[in-house]
Amino acid sequence: MRRPTLRISILLLVLLVPSLGFGQARPSSEEHFLDQEALRVATQADAVELYNAGVEALRKDRLDEAISLFTKALELDPRDHLAYNNRGVAFKRKGSLDKAIEDYNRALEITPDYGYALANRGTARFKKGDLDGALADLVHAVKLRGKDSVIYTTLGLVRKEKGDLDGAVKELKKAVALNKKNERALSALGETYEAGRNFEDAIDSYRKIIDLRGKQGDVVALKQKIEALEKSWADDLYRRGLEEYKKGNSTEAIGLWTKALKIVPEKVTVLRDRGLTYHKSGKPGNAVKDFTDAIEKDPSNAELYRIRADAYYKLKKQDEALEDYNKAIELNPRDAVAYNNRGLVYHERQELERALEDYNRAISLDSGNATFYENRALIHLAQERTRAALDDYRNALKLTTDKELSARMQERISALSEHIGEQTPRSAISLPELTNAGQAGPEGSAERREQ
């Protein structure tokens, strides 16, 4: 703040200049008082000039010059709390925080309720890592200064550093409410929201800064930051969706994944897992749409073709299913599940040799999957190879830990063992349904699917 230069009246100077003649009379007590007062006014006038010059130097960031000028001003007027405060500002900008705090202390000794000195001392303490001292100063400064956007901003930063994210948001919102162009407050607000994983509000804060800067401003870094936050936000929604899915809350999972896809539409993993969940929820049509969107974004992903084929199979669209299984196998010739599931389509079409060939291939790639043996056993039964079917059921029984499947295998093994030497007609043996080897659920575990 610039203070007006004091002016000494010409009349007063005339009265106080002593005469040069001999025999001068001694000054009266009144004249002595005026002489001392003139000295004080003249000294203060010089101090003010030095102070104002210091302010100009500080504004132009000529810090050493500013410190020198404020020091000279204080030599003439040691009770000038403004000069102490501003010299403290210069020291703080130079990084001399201890000297800055010392000057703020002197300013507050002279004027205890000087809000700016309190706020500045709080900022210096914050930079030194004295969070409690900074918080005390800034809270007091707010009470003295009232609605001050800058003080609220620093107060918000201190609370954030102390881990009080809710308190930080509250202070920073006040700062922005008082000055909607306060970029520092908006940036700090965005960072605080980030720390609390509130990606939506963080992005909103950074977008407001972009709006403030307009078309001519440098916003490249901010746009990159927003893009990264959007990905983090979508990842967070995806993770939360998985958690809901594992709890059995498919509807909630789908809702979270739908929101994630609105933010980052090209996330293939989200499309895949939402599609799988739609499939499990009895909505294969929705699943096909998600898998199709995912394939458009990742056309060389063999798994996507295989799980879309599973959805087509559920919809009884065998031609489409076969086409996708063929593509999946072309892209990944070692996908045992794709061979098994293509075998199911051939099996239903009564193309038994093709089905058997696919089941054999599936087992050669993964001899530890009980479902593959169970499905091949059906081909053996259809072709009256009862002993071969019995062997496959026994292999399936050894491999499964599922109690329901174990019971079913034991029942079939008993029935086949009982009839194997009695020439019992094949029609007397109850044939089970075909079993899809399953597609991985969103959590990644293989699942069996009865057809």
What are the key terms here?
451 residues, mainly alpha, two-stranded antiparallel ribbon, disordered C terminus
Structural overview:
This protein is an all-alpha fold and 451 residues long. The protein has 22 helices and two strands. It has helices at 10-16, 29-59, 63-76, 81-94, 97-110, 115-128, 131-145, 149-161, 165-178, 183-195, 199-213, 220-246, 250-263, 268-280, 284-297, 302-314, 318-331, 336-348, 352-365, 370-382, 386-399, 403-419, and strands at residues 435-436, 449-450. Strands 1-2 form a two-stranded antiparallel ribbon. Helix 15 packs antiparallel against helix 16 and helix 18 packs antiparallel against helix 19. Residues 1-29, 422-432 and 443-451 have low confidence and may be disordered.
What is this entry, summarized?
73% of the residues lie in helices and 1% in strands. The protein has a two-stranded antiparallel sheet with strand order 1-2. The protein is rod-shaped.
Shape: rod-shaped
The unreliable regions are: 1-29, 422-432, 443-451
| Oligomer class | single chain
DSSP, total strands: 2
Give the class from helix and strand content and strand pairing. Answer: mainly alpha
Give a short account of the largest sheet.
2 strands, antiparallel
Q: Could you report the average pLDDT, rounded to the nearest whole number? A: 86
Q: Order of strands in the sheet with the most strands?
A: 1-2
For the termini, the CA-CA separation is: 83 Å
- With helices defined by DSSP (H or I, 4 residues minimum), what is the helix count? 22
Tell me the helix content: over 70%
Q: Could you tell me the radius of gyration in angstroms?
A: 42 Å
Strand content: under 5%
SSE pattern: HHHHHHHHHHHHHHHHHHHHHHEE
